[in-house]
Amino acid sequence: MPFEVVGLIIWQFSLLELSINVRLDKFICESTPLTRSLAKKALHRGDITCDGIVVKDSGFKVTEGMRVCLEGEPIALVGVRYLMLNKPVDTICSTIDETYPSVLSLVDVPKPETLHIAGRLDADTTGLVLITTDGQWSHKITSPKKECGKRYLVQLAEPVDAGLIAVFAAGVELRGEDGLTKPALLEIIEPQLVRLTITEGKYHQVKRMFAAVGNHVQGLHRESVGQIELDPALALGEWRYLTPEEIASV
Length: 250
Hints:
Number of helices: 7
Largest sheet: 9 strands, mixed
Shape: elongated
Strand content: 25-35%
């Protein structure tokens, strides 16, 4: 892993403002792919050093600033992570592969099993997906009460006119649901190409909103979540860590 990426992961861990005081075997498991059993074997072989001294005691406490090495290579706690991914079609926002592969299969990071997806996109939808290990941060994005805006570029089967702007701003009645959707912001780019910003995350919401007014979504791409914009430098299937400013914007 490039040094700058490792540095960012460690910086993100520092956001927790925790004082490290953890058992050595647990530290190894949280810093490497090793299981607790394999970590104990590595300790028994003398593969682990702390500040240059071989330590075989799994209960040894690792404290802040201590240099821990596995077979001479330094290891560090992975900590809290925040990523953006440009989702391609035929992938799913699930933690496991099902009909299509999970978007997490596109992310090459340590301890991927600790990641979860903050908000979902359908298999045929592309664009911004946020991935994190921070549950509270994720909740700010996904909770309807937080009214975090999600902006989509929408390709439609039929042309729309300016009158639909007011309809969406007032709320749309979705089939099978009580009440109206929350006000949505519609921008018409071309007769069959629009931008739509919503603050909810109902099941297939964008598609159902247009279906409710007699139209059909042919293509859907998420451009932003809150103030976090999809990085134009990311091709479909590519990802990067969020910047400190992006993390703090949620």
